[in-house]
Write a structure and sequence with these properties.
The structure is a single chain. The protein is of the alpha+beta class and 178 residues long. The chain folds into two domains: 97 residues, Peroxidase, domain 1; 72 residues, no CATH class. Helix content is 60%, strand content 16%. It contains eight helices and four strands, in the order ααααααβαβββα. The protein has a four-stranded mixed β-sheet with strand order 2-1-3-4. Strand 3 and strand 4 form a beta hairpin. Helix 1 packs across helix 6 and helix 2 crosses helix 3. The longest helix has 17 residues. Its main location: membrane.
Length: 178
C-alpha cells in the first residue's frame, strides 16, 4: 500500500483521540478487523463509496456491521463516509498501526533469510537491530529468500542492514573487478 497524506491526517487525529481515551490497542485491533472485512468482502467498500445510497443509509449499514467495534472507529468510518473518503480506510489503518507501534517503542521490520528463523533468533535480531534504530523491540516478518546464500538482511522502515553472503560476494566482485 502506498502512503496517503489524507489517511495520515486522519490517522494522526484518530491516534490522538485514542491516546486521550486510553484505547489505542483496542482501536488498532478494530481497524485491523475492519481491513480484514473489507479485504474479504470488497463489495462493502464499493457499497460505501457508491452514490446510489444516501450517506445516512451508508452510516446505518456501518453502525449495524460494526456494532461491536469501538465507537471511535465507527465514528471515524462515518466521518470518512461524510467526506467521501471511505476508500482511505486501508491506508488509515496502516498509518494508525505505525503510530501505535512507535508509541509503544516498536517498529515493523522485515528480515530476509535463507530459512525460517527460530523464536530465539528473532528475539536476538529484535533486540540488536531495535537498538540501532532507537526502538525497544521489532515486530518481525520473516521472508525466506534462498538467493541470499546465507546471513540476513534486515529492513526497518527506510533502514536496510545487509549482512548476507550474496552482498559480501558482490562487494568482493566490485573490489576485484574494479
Amino acid at each position: 500500500m502506498s502512503k496517503s497524506t489524507v489517511a495520515k491526517r486522519y490517522a494522526d487525529a484518530l491516534f490522538q483521540l485514542a491516546q486521550e481515551k486510553k484505547v489505542v490497542e483496542e482501536v488498532n485491533n478494530d481497524l485491523e478487523e475492519l481491513v480484514k472485512v473489507i479485504e474479504t468482502t470488497p463489495e462493502l467498500l464499493s457499497l460505501l463509496s457508491s452514490p446510489k445510497f444516501s450517506i445516512e443509509r451508508k452510516k446505518q449499514i456501518v453502525a449495524e456491521i460494526f456494532a461491536s467495534a469501538n465507537p471511535i472507529v465507527v465514528n471515524t468510518l462515518e466521518l470518512l463516509i461524510d467526506k467521501k473518503r471511505v476508500n482511505e480506510v486501508g491506508y488509515l489503518a496502516q498509518e494508525f498501526k505505525v503510530l501505535a507501534a512507535e508509541a509503544q517503542g516498536f517498529a515493523d521490520s522485515t528480515v530476509f533469510s535463507t530459512r525460517e528463523l527460530t523464536e530465539q533468533e528473532k528475539a536476538e535480531i529484535s533486540s540488536t537491530f531495535g537498538k540501532l534504530v532507537g526502538k525497544e523491540n521489532l515486530n518481525i516478518t520473516n521472508v525466506i529468500e534462498p538467493s541470499l546464500l546465507g546471513g540476513v538482511r534486515v529492513q526497518i522502515g527506510n533502514y536496510i542492514f545487509d549482512n548476507t553472503v550474496a552482498n559480501k560476494l558482490e562487494g568482493l566482485k566490485r573490489t576485484l573487478v574494479g
